Amino acid sequence: MNSNDSLLESLTLFTQTAKILNRTLNKGELVDVVLEEARRVSYSRVVSLFLKSPDADTGDLYVTHDRMKRHIQLQESVSLDESDESRVGDVCQLETDDGWRKAIQEEFGADVNNRLRIPLLRRETIIGCLDLFDPPEEAIRNQQLIGILNALADLFVIAWDNAELYDQMRQKSLENDLLLESVKMLSSSLDVDEVLQDMMRALKKVVDYDAVGIFLVKRKTNRVEPRVWQGYAHVNGQKHLGSKVGEGLVGWVVESGEGVYVPDTRTDPRYFEAKPETRSELVVPIKADDQIIGAFNLESDKLDAYSEDDLKFLAVFASQAAVSIERARLHREILANKKLQEQLNVARMIQSSFLPRRNPDVKGFDIAGRNIPSLEVGGDYYDFIEIVDNQIGIAIADVSGKGMPASLIMAAFRASLIAEIRNNYAIRTILQKVNRLLNESIDSGNFVTAVYGVLDSKNRIFTFSNAGHNPPILIRKDGSYEELTEGGLALGIIDNRTYEERPVYIAPGDLIVCFTDGVTEATNSRGELFGEQLLMSILVENRDKSAEELVQLVVDSVNEFVSEEFEPDDLTLIVVKAE
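-> structure tokens emitted (579 positions)
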């Protein structure tokens, strides 16, 4: 095979590998693919992949030799800085005591002498390396092959970063599920059914019965349904014991509010047969705050098994049952509220963890952002994303809905946005891919409005695309302004949407203001909205102030404007001022 054929084969394999790396989020699969591809295109005896630990110079070493693979945890410190003796395209001779050489010898029994190193770079920082041991001489001299290996390393780093982002989201989701499940377990000890079962067992010590049922009223259906029961061996309780209010002895007691004792059920037309052996029945209402909430029913296989005294006692017992039922119900409501609060706390933590901790430092620009969450968690999001030198991504978004669902959608949006930004796509392509992912992963009716743009501080150009969001306002130094509307539909609604992007020049003294509807839809006591015109006038009149001062001024103005009765939404604001 000549060199051109070999190169064509390498490029073909590389293309197939690139597709696989973009398709999987499994770290083990990513490692296997890059090792196998590097071994095949270079014909090296042994290939290894080393990934540094985030906070140490040790890490994980993955090695393949003749299709055998090992995962080795290096314990000794290793050097991967710029002074490493093996540069890209150079082969170094390994010392006899080289730790990597010894590890390969111990795991595979293979002695290697030379190493060709391809560094793994994340934004010009070495995070690991792809090493080819004892590569053929023709591979070392083939600069095109070296280029393919470098591209393979770059693709792997991007895929690895996406996989780590996915793992973080999954871990966060697992932590959230565990938190909610613990709340359920804690609440089970005062479950209503458990309380009622305890009551029925206690009652039998005083008043004997062959069958018992505690029925609760379902107001929506106007039916009396059994909540707990015993002794009805031949019936399905929910299907055969329930009745409409007014029907059967239980329904009659619920409707009339009076207790009844029937010494011989065969002679009472109100009797509804649920147990053929029953001969006498005792039913009393369960009342709470002068409202009938159910009935207590006892049945015996004996004629005239009860007395009026039993009826009176059961009525007193039923009043205690009502207290227990209401107490259990209130306890469940407290637990439900606590569960909701826990969900909101988790959602707030998720939301706050995604927001910038500080304003960015960009030469020639003064930038500030602020998010003020409402009492109920919403789905506002903003971020400053470092891309390359002199370029920073600016994002603001608002997720439909509130609470935990909104925060999880926001997490999915942020993860997909950052993943696509790292793939170095154009802005319009980034939004198109994020839209497709959200459309596939969130329920119908949910969506995200967003603006994403890149500020080129060197050329003073802001390139943006608006996905159905409140249009950012570009205010010129002379007080003129325009809305930045170019883009497309909100994200997640319709698949395969296209988005337009537009660059604007930012001269010294100009402002770009991005905001969510928590600013413009704030409402005063007269029902008037804060609105864009008031926002605009505040910014124009105070455009000489710093970005942070403008943010605080808008927040203070909104707080002064709204009425005490108004339930605020999340308020999110970004100000970019050219100096």
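The first helix runs from residue 3 to 23.
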